[in-house]
Amino acid sequence: MTLSGAIRNYSRKRGEGDSAKVDFVELFFDLVFVFAITQISHFLLHDLSLKGLGESTLLLAAVWWVWVYTAWVTNWLDPTTPPVRVMLFVLMLAGLVLSTSIPTAFAGRGLVFAMAFVTMQLGRSLFMMWAMRHHNRSNYINFVRISIWLTMSGIFWITGGLAEPENRVYFWLIALLIEIAGPAMGFRTPGLGASSTTDWDVDGDHMAERAALFIIIALGESILVSGATFAEQEWTFISFSAFLTTFVASVAMWLIYFNVGQLRAHHKIASTDDPGRIARVAYTYIHVLLVAGIIVVAVSDELILAHPTGHSAPAVLWTSIGGTALYLIGNLLFKGYVEGRPPLSHIAGLVLCAVLAFAGGALSPLVLGAATSLILIVVTIWEYIGRVQEPAHH
Are 275 and 204 in contact (CB under 8 A)? Predict the structure, then answer.
């Protein structure tokens, strides 16, 4: 076999049976991000100030960017081949270093976080260039562009890691903005131009499934937090009611995403002539809002379980109502982009969240959590009934 032929085998085969199926090694890779999401939720829980919220948002965006870039790469490369598997294992190791440094990323381990992040981002991109160099010229050039952009952002990540903790956020914010702007601008580079989404030969089935699995990871972390907190408490009617409330919220969030939206988006991206465009907007940019909403609700669940009675503190209010609203906004944008119109049920849910924000201070954390869970249930039922009636209407 020639070298070119060997490299060609690294590409994911398209249109052959279960070629779009997510491989076990991809799920194994995702385990690192269960840990990362847990670390971020604990980071936010320990600092519920605006500063803590801003830093948590930046850390989540960085973790999401590492994961979603890897999802794109395994959309093109076959994860069952040894070199790609080794690449994923190396990324897992770096990801564990990244995750363990999250609690002190803005303190003593800033450089560790930055080095792990840059190693994952740039190292993966360079591997992609090597794997594609002989048989996929357009994707090879695309990853040359991406590597240049990631080198630019990497300078700011590492500079931020070396900077004083109070100045670190400014360098990292610039680095993150560079990374976020890259896909939107087609990684435009002097001399190489910009890539087009039509050049991104995306397998829509695989991309939709990968994004859905990450949502399950985030929801699973929320359930783990609730279960672990409840297990350490004295089991009373109040504590069980609080636990039941948090569980119902997780189920409702699952239903809002999977009952209608995920399936329709899956069909949309699988049937479109430009799956790269949908993957860039719907799965690369919008999905991080869903994950953020789940994390914030998980923090509120822990606060509610810890202190279910009395008046709701501001932290309980903004995490419970704000997290619910953020999750609904993410779903609204996701479904609105895919279907061309925002679901009315989600708009109604956001209105109810706004109303609850005015009255929430007088409610106990348990009642507040029950109210936000009820909002999610209302949205779920409303949307489901509307979808069932659609065929008769049309």
Answer: yes
- Containing domain of residue 231, as a range? 204-393
Among 135-144, 182-191, 371-380, the least confident range: 135-144
Locate 202 and state its tokens. Answer: 């995306």
What confidence tens digit (pLDDT) does each residue in 320-346 have? 999 999 999 999 999 998 888 888 999
Tokens of 126: 């360079």
Q: Determine the residue type at 62.
A: A
Residue 233 and residue 349 in one domain: yes
| CA 66/CA 81 separation, integer angstroms | 21
Burial class (CB in 10 A: 0-12, 13-18, 19+), 348: middle
Q: Percent helix, strand and coil across the chain, each rounded to 5?
A: 80, 0, 20
DSSP state of 188: -
Tokens of 187: 């990684």
Helix (H, G, I), strand (E, B) or coil at 77: strand
Enter the pTM of the model: 0.91
Q: What are phi and psi of 310, to 5 degrees?
A: 85, -175
Residues 241 and 164 both lie in one domain: no
Kindly state whether residues 311 and 370 are assigned to the same domain: yes
**Which CA distances in Å does 108 have to 67, 111, 165, 190, 319?**
24, 8, 8, 37, 28
- Kindly list the distances between the CA atom of residue 251 and the CA atoms of 145, 244, 330, in Å, as whole numbers in the listed order: 41, 11, 17
> What is the distance between the alpha carbons of residues 262 and 268, in angstroms, rounded to a whole number?
10
Residue 248 shares a structural domain with residue 382:
yes
Dist. CA 325–CA 292, nearest whole Å: 11
| 3-state SS, residue 220 | helix
